[in-house]
Design brief:
With about 210 residues, the protein is of the alpha/beta class. Helix content is about 35%, strand content about 25%. The chain has six helices and nine strands. Strands 3-2-1-4-5-6-7 form a seven-stranded mixed sheet, sandwiched between helices. A two-stranded antiparallel sheet has the order 8-9. Helix 2 links the parallel strand 2 and strand 3. Helix 1 packs parallel to helix 6. The protein is globular, with a radius of gyration of 17 Å. About 40% of the residues are buried. The model has no long low-confidence stretch (mean pLDDT about 95). Bound molecules: 5-O-phosphono-beta-D-ribofuranosylamine. 5-O-phosphono-beta-D-ribofuranosylamine binds next to helix 1, strand 5 and helix 6.
Length: about 210
């Protein structure tokens, strides 16, 4: 895959629906790495109350909010979101706890440049309740997956995964907290590779190109 952005550093949009700890991990990683290759230029949400928006404001990064209910249908909602991101000339879109599905129209605007973090070892436990579903199933191992986004839910080519053990006394909260500490490493590392144009996608397979010396 050619370098992923028209801009150097790549212009990143982060979409959040919740507290934004993954967003914060990404911001911290970029702040501490002169060679990251990307900068967060806008943070978007479908919820005005998302804690991630407070983190954006604290970091002095512009925010946009598009609530689905504010539009006649999902297509109109998504088109408004695309317009917001395009207005910031975005190269890469990071879904960091963004609890909405995006259609092929959105993805076609940023081909192989939309990346998501999911709190399970895909393809196990897709969907919005991955941590609870893994606990209910009784698995002994779960983890974190970072993947490129396609039109199916939690399905696109996998960039990175890491497993963690499930403990006998885990609750959904304690397990999710431990998964998040893994996500906070994997997501920024994967976004860095994407921004640097070092992800080569071949069908379901993603290879990482070595850093040039
Ligand atoms: C993460 O575990 C993510 O994988 C899931 O939602 C959580 C978001 O957490 N989709 P945060 O808002 O980044 O703290």
């Amino acid at each position: 895959m050619p370098p992923n952005s028209a801009h150097i550093p790549a212009r990143i949009a982060v979409l959040v629906s919740g507290g934004g700890t993954n967003l914060q991990a990404l911001l911290d990683a970029i702040a501490g790495d002169d060679d990251f290759g990307g900068e967060v230029v806008v943070i978007g949400s479908d919820r005005a109350s998302a804690g991630g928006l407070d983190r954006a404001r604290a970091a002095g990064i512009p925010t946009v909010t598009q609530a689905v209910a504010a539009h006649p249908d999902r297509a109109a909602w998504e088109a408004a979101l695309v317009d917001d991101l395009a207005a910031h000339d975005v190269d890469v879109v990071v879904l960091a706890g963004f609890m909405r599905l995006l259609s092929g129209r959105f993805l076609a605007r940023w081909p192989s440049r939309v990346i998501n973090t999911h709190p399970s070892l895909l393809p196990a436990f897709r969907g919005a309740h991955a941590v609870r579903d893994a606990l209910d199933y009784g698995v002994k191992v779960t983890g974190s997956t970072v993947h490129l986004v396609d039109e199916e839910v939690d399905h696109g080519p996998i960039v990175a995964q890491r497993a963690i053990d499930v403990r006998a006394d885990d609750t959904e909260q304690t397990l999710h907290d431990r998964i998040k500490t893994v996500e906070h490493e994997l997501l920024p590392a994967a976004v860095r590779l994407l921004c640097q144009g070092r992800l080569e996608v071949d069908g379901r397979h993603v290879r990482v190109r070595e850093e040039s010396p």
